Amino acid sequence: VQLQASGGGLVQAGGSLRLSCAASGSIYSINTMGWYRQAPGKQRELVAGITSRGSTNYADSVKGRFTISKDNAKNTVYLQMNSLKPEDTAVYYCKADPVTYQSGSAYYTKVLWGQGTLVTVSS
After folding, report:
1. Cβ-based neighbour number of residue 35 at 10 Å
2. What is the pLDDT of residues 58-86, one digit of tens each?
3. Which residues of the chain have pLDDT under 50?
4. What is the pLDDT of residue 27?
5. Which end of the chain, C or N, has fewer beta carbons within 10 A?
6. CA nearest 8: which of 120, 93, 119, 121?
7. Are 90 and 37 in contact (CB under 8 A)?
């Protein structure tokens, strides 16, 4: 099982980007999925999260600008980022916490991180 993130890139301030993160493998269920980011010299921080029931939460710094959503059938989570600011520049990581998956006849649970995708917002 793994997470594959995509959608990062270079955008001017005020622009938009949409990140995607797809979970693959013999997945039985996913509890919470979220997006985190880490800027140079800073700690990784939560940007937005969404539960299996669709409840969402956001960092104060992105409320009103970012929207997290998911497609359960595709085991994919999205982050729509609007009105981007230079301070949004970071590597964005997706997380699935936890994933329950099947291997052989057994089920296992683990936390998964995606590989990160770089978002650069120019002023």
Report:
1. 27
2. 999 999 999 999 999 999 999 999 999 99
3. none
4. 93
5. C
6. 119
7. yes
